[in-house]
Amino acid sequence: MEDLTIGRKSLKSDRWTEWRKTPTDQKKKVAFPPLQKAYPADAKLIDLVAPKDFTVGKIPLSDAISRRVSHRKFTEEFLTLEELSFLLWATQGVKEVVRDGYATRRNVPSGGSRHSFETYLCVQRVKGLTPGLYRYLALEHKLILLNDDPNLYRQVNEATEDQNYGGAVIFIWTTIPYRCEWRYSFVAHKIILLDAGHVCQNLYLACEAIGCGTCAIGAYNQEKMDAVLGVDGKDELTVYCAPVGKVQ
Hints:
Blueprint: H1 5-8, H2 16-20, E1 45-47, H3 61-67, H4 81-92, E2 94-98, E3 103-106, E4 117-123, E5 132-137, E6 142-147, H5 152-159, E7 169-175, H6 178-184, H7 188-209, E8 212-214, H8 222-229, E9 237-246
Antiparallel strand pairs: 1-6, 2-3, 4-5, 4-7, 5-6, 7-9, 8-9
Helix pairs in contact: 3-7, 4-7, 5-8, 6-7
């Protein structure tokens, strides 16, 4: 029988005393990792609706919590750009850059404000957007189009083992582990997993607030999804997915 205790090690918090005595890269004053992946200086960025201009999502929090369920069936309705903007802001929106530029405060918590995630979007039905693969630039609250291959939605569905469920857009989060490792070294990986849960729960609640639904997907093909996103699976790797769409 497989030794399940090996996988359980990342769940434990038994190395914090050791960590406090460890010369982490932050303690060694190694330059902090970028808060966001770089993009070409001449890239054409796509404006999103600013948070101050949102007209959606204004329901009582208690209603969003009580309605929250996983949805695996969506209508053919398109999301609006404002609705997508709201979902992105709710899950990774940046409030401010802090701590001499090495951390951000966002709409979700993160251990040490490390926020190791990048948000990719496989867009199928969003008004005003060409179907394709996008990345959310949280610092600018903008999008960048990475790939408009018409086969992309099918490729993502294959990577999620047929769990797109007809979503209008698939949220795919990667982690850049070193953003967290820089500060937390060998205890970073539990923090990253906890932080992923924070992000996806905000997506659930934000979806309920705009008449959408989602379903968290952890059972995906790692190699296929990393390949679709164009990440190396080592210094950046997929950790979570969630299709989003309108529900009846």
